[in-house]
């Protein structure tokens, strides 16, 4: 067989190759011709260079001799290694550390100037040294700053003075020297540096440009994903930063105001000094006078925070009825005084300008606005005491969209007259109404559902009002009740529906009020709906609760107004056990919070806008009220609603607030038009809110001025854009409605408790009394 | 004797130089630039077929004007006025080859002489419009082109055709100007339009292959640079570029005369983009430890009062005796990395400094004495290499060359790869010295293994290429090429075997005796980092 015709297999890198010594294989040369089967590998050099003379010579030499001979090496330009001044140039010794050298990151960043002075500079500095003080390093630092301060354009002398901290004269000298030197230099900068790329990309081919940034990173999929995430992060960062900017701006304003306050205080002190008011008596007098004239707190915090302050002051204004209002105010002032006075009284003889009061004044709010928050919290306590309707306070929720008032849907509510394009349903007509607690006859009134499920009574004025009042069963107990406020009630009847005169508040009533409230609160507790107990536990539950759950089973149309004993005081002791103390506490907190926020909202906007937006709570309510089961199903399919499992999460049945939601949302019958979720603003907002319904009647002034009557304002329901707002509601609202769905066909227990009767047309009149009870109760809590 | 005005850029003629034996020789050289210093003309010459590092400025008396060849027939008009930095119109290549195609009757081969880089634009008397010369660097003074024109082809074509009748390079010194012209110039400047070049090179390469087969040189057809068109920017990975970037005449010429570094004075071999204002200095001074460049000794003295570095600013990851290695992150220590690259570029032709140093680690080898840790050499390494590169650039500074440090650097790079558990290979292209060093290292490493193989219970010892690769961390391809280069692979009785000849064994043993400097893996304190998990480098 011919060896040459034999075709060798390719070299297999994973196949073992036996290793021979050539002397062991005498016949090897016979096989040599087949070696070319092994693929030749590239050298990895540029072709053009590979053939260079010296390389080839060296390669050949190596192959021939097995090693390079000295004259066969590739020649290179020479290098010298005998710099004579080396030792003086690099003075000192460096001892080798025992350990391997580890460098801390950034420890290398020294503050030394990059500029190194040359002989010219040295001559200049030495010359300059005769005139003024300057060291070589200082000179270098100055030049370094000037160089780094200038880009294409050199810095000017004024700029240089800003850059440098040395004496003006020195700066001038160095600056002149520097600019002369810079002008005569061909280079861009006196600190030589490698040319940078130009932004326009024109430097692509400039061989002196080096170390360009790798702008176009090679994109891999991994990176792309990151980009999206990082983009979002950047967005968030931007938001946060702009928020920080806002905060800083506010801080700036605050500090400015503080400075102003300081100046004012200083002025006062000076004036007092001038009039020798060392004891603060004059001051106290003036303060007292001012308080009498105008009980106004000068806002400490300007503009952005102003609304908070205003609502604080307005709150005060409202809370103290005009003739009374000085009392708490002065009290507050005097409180401060009283703290101060003992001291100043003692020190009244000596001429010290500073008494404790003054010290106090200098104790400015730093970052926390402490006094301010104290005031707020103080007032919120007061609210809980005196102001009973925080429950329905408007509260802005994060994630909720609030829409502006729809002016076009004016009067589309069931109780509006046909002239306003509404149904004017008989169940909303005015009828003679009396309340159980307090027992008295209101005259003509109609009731409707307000925001949060409250029942609102619209009263109408009629000539027969005095007669109606005679009808009050407990007439003799009542103080002579004043007539309803004429300005409100004399309006055209359909329009007058937006005011709900409340209990007349005179002194007698006021003292009685706390008592009344207490009893009402006691009754109110029954409105709390505890978390639904499992059936097994129902037997152990409170009798009332058992009754309630029993009632849910049969689809009952029977109203249960009287079966729920809530009316008479003392008739039924409140089942306190249903509510734990914590729940109650929590509830109270919620109430105050909500009320505060509602007030803020009300104050923040101009009166006509007060009802512009909906809080999430009312949105939820609206959604639940408007959406029928069918709609819900449709909605559910559209939005990714989690199946009803979320019920408990959403319905935290911890208080009246939620319970009343439940009650109203459970009520809608598919046939009936949705009850309009209108809201009764707490009467505390009377000063700003009453006219919100109807821009045509400006009453803002009148309400606070009336002594005998507080006008409750309705934020009209029409502000809620009925079903159209649904899509824009947050998922949570829909969730809420969704979870209500199973209950819709049957009146929920709470519905039976509080509002169920209203839905029953037949019984309308018969249940009015109990209804009014509800009304009062709910407003109170 | 011809008037010296005639010697312009692009001219070729024998130039006197001393060889290593200090004998006179007259290799053919090309004039790359002409300048006038104190009314004496100086010519920057590139010795054809010699490495660029030997290019130099010579005086007129070293030129053999009798054998002067002009770049074109009628290049009577002096191109320009001898401004420093003047250069031939190399960027004209594209237009040139176009013209060639139009005017030539010998079709394809004609483009091979694309190197006629010095050719003026035919038919163009004035300066070429900028758009036609996109790769001209804007920086240096605009060269004036040899203006007259028409004729250049005549000189070029013969050369082109000659290139196929290649003579072995051994006798190139005696070659007449015409015969060498083609290949030499071709080597000098790779033709620009990639496709054409490929097509044309095919022919010549074949000739070479047959001519040079005795030394086992194979020309790889697809080098990385054979793409199309003009490069706008080099690739982002790696630190070496193909010859393409050298089209610019500026980068073909050394720009720094001398560098003083510590106790050494170095003569740069290649262009390096130090700030342009420093290139005119007779000596550029570098701080030995931070490698900062300053313009004068005074500045260096001032700098040394402020610079307290006595070692490269990185972590020492290896120390044995006086030899240490420092690891420097090109992202964290940009200034030092850039300074290191700048000086390295002086000695590495293909190194590119186009992009920043962020994706690289720099391993600086130092030798300690009482003054501190003096830099001996370094290699750079991509933090993440897509192509199994374990070295990007590698350099032993000239004063330390030919003393085993290069091999030490290479050995260290493979020790790192061993720790990483990878095989690696140096980034291409290799320089001539790089090829020799690597071949030498590979040969010794592989032979060491082969000679240490002991007969396995009477059986003849055997080993696979993969095993060699695993043990040494040398990439499989490099193992094969080394085995081939050493001529160890033989086909014997139906299978491949490795044969160790006596000369090989002897040579290896001799070489190993001389190799004192070795890396001791026990002294290496190195934990590889997974850079892919660290975000951007």
UniProtKB/TrEMBL annotation, chain B:
Residues 72-204, 222-241 are annotated as: Disordered. One of its GO terms (cellular component) is NuA4 histone acetyltransferase complex. Transmembrane segments: none annotated. Keywords: Acetylation, Acyltransferase, DNA damage, DNA repair, Metal-binding, Nucleus, Transcription, Transcription regulation, Transferase, Zinc, Zinc-finger. SUPFAM superfamilies: Acyl-CoA N-acyltransferases (Nat), Chromo domain-like. GO terms for biological process: cellular response to oxygen-containing compound; double-strand break repair via homologous recombination; positive regulation of DNA-templated transcription. Its main location: nucleus. Belongs to the MYST (SAS/MOZ) family. This is Histone acetyltransferase KAT5. It comes from Periophthalmus magnuspinnatus.
């Amino acid at each position: 067989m011919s060896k040459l015709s034999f075709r060798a297999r390719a070299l297999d890198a994973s196949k073992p190759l036996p290793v021979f010594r050539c002397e062991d294989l005498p016949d090897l040369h016979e096989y040599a011709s087949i070696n070319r089967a092994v693929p030749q590998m590239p050298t990895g050099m540029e072709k053009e260079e590979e053939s260079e003379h010296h390389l080839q010579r060296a390669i050949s030499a190596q192959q021939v001799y097995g090693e390079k001979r000295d004259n066969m090496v590739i020649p290179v330009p020479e290098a010298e290694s005998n710099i004579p001044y080396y030792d003086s140039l690099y003075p000192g010794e460096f001892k080798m550390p025992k350990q391997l050298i580890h460098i801390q990151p950034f420890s290398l960043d020294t503050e030394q100037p990059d500029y190194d002075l040359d002989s010219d500079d040295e001559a200049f500095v030495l010359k300059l040294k005769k005139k003024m003080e300057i060291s070589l390093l200082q000179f270098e630092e100055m030049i370094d700053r000037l160089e780094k301060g200038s880009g294409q354009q050199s810095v000017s002398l004024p700029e240089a003075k800003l850059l440098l901290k040395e004496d003006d004269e020195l700066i001038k000298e160095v600056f002149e020297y520097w600019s002369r030197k810079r002008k005569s230099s061909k280079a861009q900068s006196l600190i030589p540096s490698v040319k940078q790329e130009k932004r326009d990309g024109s430097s692509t081919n400039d061989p002196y440009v080096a170390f360009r940034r790798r702008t176009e990173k090679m994109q891999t999929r991994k990176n792309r994903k990151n980009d999206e995430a990082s983009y979002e992060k950047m967005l968030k960062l931007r938001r946060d930063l702009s928020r920080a900017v806002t905060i800083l701006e506010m801080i700036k304003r605050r500090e400015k105001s503080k400075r102003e306050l300081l100046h004012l205080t200083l002025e006062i002190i000076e004036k007092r000094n001038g009039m020798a008011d060392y004891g603060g008596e004059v001051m106290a007098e003036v303060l007292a006078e001012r308080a009498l004239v105008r009980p106004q707190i000068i806002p400490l915090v300007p503009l952005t925070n102003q609304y908070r302050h205003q609502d604080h002051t307005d709150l005060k204004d409202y809370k103290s009825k005009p003739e009374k209002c000085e009392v708490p105010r002065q009290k507050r002032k005097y409180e401060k005084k009283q703290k101060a006075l003992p001291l100043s009284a003692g020190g009244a003889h000596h001429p010290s300008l500073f008494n404790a009061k003054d010290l106090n004044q200098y104790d400015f709010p730093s970052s926390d606005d402490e006094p301010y928050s104290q005031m707020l919290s103080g007032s919120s306590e007061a609210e809980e005491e005196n102001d009973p309707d925080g429950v329905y306070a408007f509260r802005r929720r994060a994630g909720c969209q609030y829409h502006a008032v729809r002016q076009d849907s004016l009067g589309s509510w069931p109780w509006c007259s046909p002239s306003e394009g509404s149904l004017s349903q008989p169940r909303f007509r005015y009828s003679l109404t009396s309340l159980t607690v307090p027992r008295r006859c209101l005259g003509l009134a109609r009731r409707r559902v307000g925001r949060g499920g409250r029942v609102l009574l619209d009263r109408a004025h009629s000539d027969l009002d005095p007669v109606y009042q005679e009808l009050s069963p407990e007439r003799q107990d009542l103080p002579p009740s004043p007539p309803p406020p004429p300005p409100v009630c004399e309006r055209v009847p359909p329009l007058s529906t937006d005011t709900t005169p409340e209990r007349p508040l005179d002194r007698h009533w006021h003292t009685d009020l706390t008592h009344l409230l207490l009893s009402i609160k006691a009754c109110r507790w029954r409105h709390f709906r505890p978390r639904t107990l499992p059936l097994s536990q129902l037997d152990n539950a409170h009798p009332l609760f058992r009754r309630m759950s029993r009632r849910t089973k049969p689809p009952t149309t029977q109203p249960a107004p009287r079966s729920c004993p809530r009316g008479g005081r003392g008739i039924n002791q409140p089942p306190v056990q249903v509510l734990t103390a914590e729940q109650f506490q929590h509830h109270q907190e919620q109430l105050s919070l909500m009320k505060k926020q509602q007030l803020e909202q009300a104050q923040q906007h101009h009166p006509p806008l007060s009802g512009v937006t909906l809080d999430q709570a009312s949105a939820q309510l609206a959604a639940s009220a408007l959406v029928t089961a069918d709609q819900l199903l449709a909605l559910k399919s559209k939005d990714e609603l989690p199946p009803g499992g979320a019920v408990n999460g959403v319905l935290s049945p911890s208080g009246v607030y939620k319970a009343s939601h439940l009650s109203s949302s459970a009520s809608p019958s598919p046939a009936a038009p949705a009850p309009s979720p209108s809201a009764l603003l707490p009467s505390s907002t009377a000063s700003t809110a009453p006219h919100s319904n109807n821009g045509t009647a400006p009453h803002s002034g009148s309400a606070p001025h009336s002594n005998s009557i507080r006008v409750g304002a309705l934020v009209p329901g029409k502000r809620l854009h009925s079903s159209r707002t649904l899509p824009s509601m947050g998922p949570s609202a829909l969730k809420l409605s969704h979870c209500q769905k199973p209950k819709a066909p049957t009146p929920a227990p709470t519905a039976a408790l509080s509002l169920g009767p209203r839905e029953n047309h037949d019984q309308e009149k018969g249940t009015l009394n109990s209804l009014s009870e509800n009304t009062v109760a709910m407003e109170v809590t | 004797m011809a008037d010296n005005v005639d010697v312009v850029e692009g001219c070729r003629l024998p130039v006197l130089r001393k060889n290593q034996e200090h004998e006179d020789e007259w290799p053919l050289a090309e004039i790359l630039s002409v300048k006038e210093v104190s009314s004496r003309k100086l010519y920057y010459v590139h010795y054809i077929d010699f490495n660029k590092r030997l290019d130099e400025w010579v005086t007129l008396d070293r030129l053999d004007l009798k054998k002067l060849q002009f770049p074109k027939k009628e290049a009577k008009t002096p191109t320009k006025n001898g401004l420093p930095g003047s250069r031939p119109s190399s960027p004209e290549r594209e237009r040139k080859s176009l013209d060639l195609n139009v005017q030539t009757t010998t079709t394809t081969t004609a483009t091979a002489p694309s190197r006629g880089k010095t050719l003026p634009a035919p038919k163009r008397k004035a300066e070429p419009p900028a758009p036609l010369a996109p790769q001209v660097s804007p920086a240096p003074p605009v060269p004036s082109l040899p203006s007259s024109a028409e004729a250049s082809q005549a000189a070029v074509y013969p050369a082109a055709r000659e290139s196929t009748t290649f003579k072995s390079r051994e006798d190139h010194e005696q070659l007449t100007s015409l015969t060498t012209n083609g290949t030499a110039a071709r080597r000098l400047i790779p033709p620009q339009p990639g496709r054409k070049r490929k097509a044309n090179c095919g022919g010549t390469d074949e000739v070479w292959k047959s001519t040079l087969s005795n030394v086992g040189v194979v020309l790889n057809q697809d080098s990385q640079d054979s793409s199309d068109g003009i490069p706008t920017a080099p690739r982002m990975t790696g630190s070496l570029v193909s010859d393409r970037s050298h089209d610019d005449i500026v980068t073909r010429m050394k720009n720094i005369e001398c560098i003083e570094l510590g106790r050494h004075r170095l003569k740069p071999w290649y262009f390096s983009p130090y700030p342009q204002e420093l290139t005119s200095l007779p000596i550029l001074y570098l701080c030995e430890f931070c490698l900062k460049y300053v313009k004068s000794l005074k500045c260096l003295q001032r700098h040394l009062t402020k610079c307290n570095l006595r070692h490269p600013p990185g972590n020492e990851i290896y120390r044995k005796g006086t030899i240490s290695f420092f690891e420097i992150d090109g992202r964290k220590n940009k200034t030092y990395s850039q300074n290191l690259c700048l000086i390295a570029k002086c000695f590495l032709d293909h190194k590119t400094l186009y992009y920043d140093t962020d994706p690289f680690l720099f391993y600086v080898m130092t030798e300690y004495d009482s003054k501190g840790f003096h830099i001996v050499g370094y290699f750079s390494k991509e933090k993440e290499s897509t192509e199994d590169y374990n070295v990007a650039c590698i350099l032993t500074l000239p004063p330390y060359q030919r003393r085993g440090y290069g091999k030490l650097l290479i050995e260290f790079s493979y020790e790192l790869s061993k720790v990483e558990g990878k095989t690696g290979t140096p980034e291409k292209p290799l320089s001539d010295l790089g090829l020799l060093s690597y071949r030498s290292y590979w040969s010794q490493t592989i032979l060491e293994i082969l000679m240490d193989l002991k007969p396995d219970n009477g059986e003849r010892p055997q080993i696979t290429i993969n095993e060699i690769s695993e043990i040494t961390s040398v990439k499989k391809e490099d193992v094969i090429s080394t085995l081939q280069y050493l001529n160890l692979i033989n086909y014997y009785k139906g299978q491949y075997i490795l044969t160790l000849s006596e000369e090989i064994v002897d040579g290896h043993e001799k070489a190993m005796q001389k190799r004192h400097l070795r890396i001791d893996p026990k002294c290496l304190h190195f934990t590889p980092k997974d850079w892919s998990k660290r975000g951007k480098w």
